[in-house]
Structures are given as C-alpha cells and as structure tokens.
Amino acid sequence: MLPVTALLTGGLCAVLVALSLLVSFARVRTKTSLGDGDDDMLRRRIRAQGNFVEYTPMALLAVGLVEHLSGSTLLALSLGGALLLGRLVHAAGMLGNLLPLRVVGMMLTYASLLGSAGWLVFGQVL
C-alpha cells in the first residue's frame, strides 16, 4: 500500500485537469485548434500544462518507489509535498508570467527528483 503516493497522485491528477481545462478554454476563446495561434496567453497555458506533463510522471514514480522501498511515510510526504507544491507554484508562475515563481517551482521539483534519486541510488546501500 502506498497511501502517500495515492493521495499525491489524486492531487496531481486534479492539477493536470485544471491546467488542461485552461488550455481548452483558451483554445475556444482564440478559435485555435492546433498550436498557439500566436496568442501569448494560450502559449503560456500550453507550456504550463506541457511542463507539468514533462516532469510529473517520473517524479511521481520516484516518490512512489521511495515510499514502497523505504516504508517511510515522512520521507514520502516530504518528497511528495515538495513535488506538489513545486508543480503548483511553477504553474502559477507560467500562467502569470512571473519568473520568480517559476524558479521556486522548479527548485522544489528538482529537490523532489534529486531527493528521490539520491535515496533510490544511495539509500538502498547505506
């Protein structure tokens, strides 16, 4: 059982749906079926969704493996919390065109990925 990963997956699924709806609504507004129609807001929404999809699956898998192999709820909560917060903050920065939020969001995402990777590679042998 992976209760932290299950909860994290549910939250991340909701974020993905929200980001996807923002893209869909912008496509309707701009009457753009493919691409970004040279619309800056649609472009930012597409990239916020795309960046989420690029980073989230591997990070979620890594957190799930850490939870499963370590059995530590606290470790999984810490890594998963950094991931969820990072993805939310990054998306807000992308949507609002706010570079500082994007940077903080990516740093949290990287912390989750590197923390998980470190534990998966080195935590097993220590």
Estimate what percentage of residues fall within beta strands: under 5%
Using the coordinates shown, work out and report the CATH topology: Four Helix Bundle (Hemerythrin (Met), subunit A)
Which runs of at least 5 residues are low in confidence (pLDDT < 50)?
none
User: How many distinct domains?
Assistant: 1
Distance between the termini: 24 Å
CATH structural architecture? Up-down Bundle
How would you classify the helix and strand content by structural class?
A: mainly alpha
CATH superfamily: Membrane associated eicosanoid/glutathione metabolism-like domain
- The global form is elongated
Number of strands: 0
Range of helix content:
over 70%
Order of helices and strands: HHHH
List keywords for this structure.
Four Helix Bundle (Hemerythrin (Met), subunit A); 126 residues; elongated
